[in-house]
Design brief:
globular; 41% strand; seven-stranded antiparallel sheet; Alpha-D-Glucose-1,6-Bisphosphate, Chain A, domain 4; 3 helices; alpha+beta
Length: 142
């Protein structure tokens, strides 16, 4: 796992979800489920695996997020590098902790440096939206 640099900022989103960790793990690691709530991808939960998330390109962005899996500990920890454009290299870490009523889902994207406030704000908004999508996909799963 890449450590964030001094002075960097992180986005943390935590939600308790009424599902077991194994079910949430499937939504985080199965390509077709991941595509339903996050983005089109060629993900595989294998350390060292390079993959991409893809969406419709926007002005000044090609729509590709280059990633690499750095940690896989089913069904509790998943970490990957996340680089949507040159100059922004962050780490996304998922932690699933069983609770009395389900699972505490924690997503942390770390490594936003000085001068990356726009990317930080956009990612903050995006993750809250994506986590809502994750909850909807989980509600529809067996």
């Amino acid at each position: 796992m890449t450590e964030p640099t001094a002075g960097s900022r992180s986005i943390v989103v935590e939600r308790e979800m009424p599902h077991p960790p194994e079910k949430i793990w499937r939504a985080l690691t199965q390509r077709s489920l991941l595509e339903q709530w996050l983005l089109e991808n060629d993900f595989e939960p294998v350390v060292g695996r390079r993959f991409s998330f893809r969406r419709t390109p926007l002005p000044q962005w090609n729509g590709v997020i280059d990633c690499e899996v750095t940690l896989v500990e089913p069904p509790t920890r998943l970490v990957y590098r996340w680089s949507p454009f040159d100059g922004l290299k962050t780490v996304v870490a998922w932690t699933l902790t069983p609770t009395k009523n389900g699972t505490l889902v924690r997503m942390e994207q770390s490594g936003f440096g000085p001068g990356q406030g726009g990317a930080f704000q956009g990612a903050s908004y995006g993750w809250r939206k994506f986590i809502g999508g994750l909850e909807a996909v989980l509600a529809g799963m067996d």
